[in-house]
Amino acid sequence: MEWPNHGGQPETMRQLFKMEKDREILDFSANINPLGPPSWLKETLRNHYDTITYYPDPTYLSSSVSVANYEGIDAGQVLVTNGGAEAIFLVAKYFEKGKALIVHPTFMEYERACQHYHIDVEDVFYEPKNGFQLPLTSIREKLTKTDVIFLCRPNNPTGTIVKEEDLRLLLEEGEKTGTTIVVDEAFVDFLPSSIPSLVKWLRTYSNLILLRSLTKMYTIPGLRIGYMMANEPIINALKDEQIPWSVNSLAAALVPKLLEDTSFVEKTKGWLKEQSQYVFRSLTDLDFHIYPSSVNFYILQDKKKNTNELFQFLLRHGILTRHTHNFKGLNGEFIRIAIRSKEENEQLISVLKKWRNES
Ligand SMILES: Cc1ncc(COP(=O)(O)O)c(C=O)c1O
């Protein structure tokens, strides 16, 4: 069977599993904030309707300045992109024909982008027995022949977080070996405030590139907004590679407004804390194997029965989760599940109870 590459495709799954057209599907496969978009967004989009009749400012100055102010860096260290996805491909272009390390299981677009730009990729794997910690020794051994390392923090799909001290060590050694560390922080906004972004390190390490997405937190994957942060020479080089006007004018106009809405982010963190406590407690009571995640998704394995069968059981009961067949190192042995609204999470737990009772 040809599994879809990404989550959030209920219609494709409906067809793949030959489900009736009117069968309702709750989508736990996409890791998007269920609280969004923010309530003011529709009206603001309407108010900015006229901007679509003009080309956007090709330098995206106003959005870059708002990102810089929000992050406490210079506008020259920011590049606004058409979602985190464009940022990933731009970074790969920067290392065209070079050598990369990708730490798996992780978001598959790093690999696709590297293939696209003829980058020679070596795979390394997080250590599941150690809660998906970084395979530090094996990475350090490879540094001298590595131009770039792709890391996702918090990591998709595991929801785990590479330790700061491990990263610091890699950045310091990477400065000597000419290795850049790309850290995709697409889900960083979901973390508790006690685990901050690495943005403060941009001042210290010129070999650090950070990637961000606004589509997850604000529930706007269709609008496409992200940005990257790095030292000015890297940002300038990447600007030259970016397709002109790649961020549309509505998306660009929204950047300052989204970043100003810190109360929406706080509300999201409150929901996440409450709901993840409920979900993780219930799953542990039901004897499922889960890894501690600090973000809005987690991976789960059934210790007692085949997880693939569980995936299909959930789907038959109208719950779509994310298969892991195309995550290297997971190979379909887990499913990734999003944390959704209270009602949806309760529905998930009740179907999982049914699965347990029928097992
Ligand atoms: C880790 C990670 N980075 C980047 C992206 C791309 O996000 P977007 O292009 O919507 O900003 C995704 C999307 O799923 C992701 O999971």
Automatic annotation (TrEMBL):
EC number per UniProt: 4.1.1.81
Statement: the UniProt record of this protein carries the keyword Iron-sulfur: no
A GO MF term: threonine-phosphate decarboxylase activity
Pfam families, per the entry: Aminotran_1_2
SUPFAM superfamilies xref list: PLP-dependent transferases
Catalyses which reaction(s): O-phospho-L-threonine + H(+) = (R)-1-aminopropan-2-yl phosphate + CO2
Keyword field: Cobalamin biosynthesis, Lyase, Pyridoxal phosphate
Gene3D superfamilies: Aspartate Aminotransferase, domain 1, Type I PLP-dependent aspartate aminotransferase-like (Major domain)
Record's keyword annotation contains Lyase: yes
InterPro entries, sorted: Aminotransferase_I/II_large (IPR004839), CobD (IPR005860), PyrdxlP-dep_Trfase (IPR015424), PyrdxlP-dep_Trfase_major (IPR015421), PyrdxlP-dep_Trfase_small (IPR015422)
A biological process from GO: cobalamin biosynthetic process
Residue span, Aminotransferase class I/classII large domain: 24-351
Coiled-coil residue windows: none
Cofactor list: pyridoxal 5'-phosphate
Pathway(s) per entry: Cofactor biosynthesis; adenosylcobalamin biosynthesis
Main function: Decarboxylates L-threonine-O-3-phosphate to yield (R)-1-amino-2-propanol O-2-phosphate, the precursor for the linkage between the nucleotide loop and the corrin ring in cobalamin.
PANTHER family given in the database record: HISTIDINOL-PHOSPHATE AMINOTRANSFERASE-RELATED, THREONINE-PHOSPHATE DECARBOXYLASE
Stated name of the protein: threonine-phosphate decarboxylase
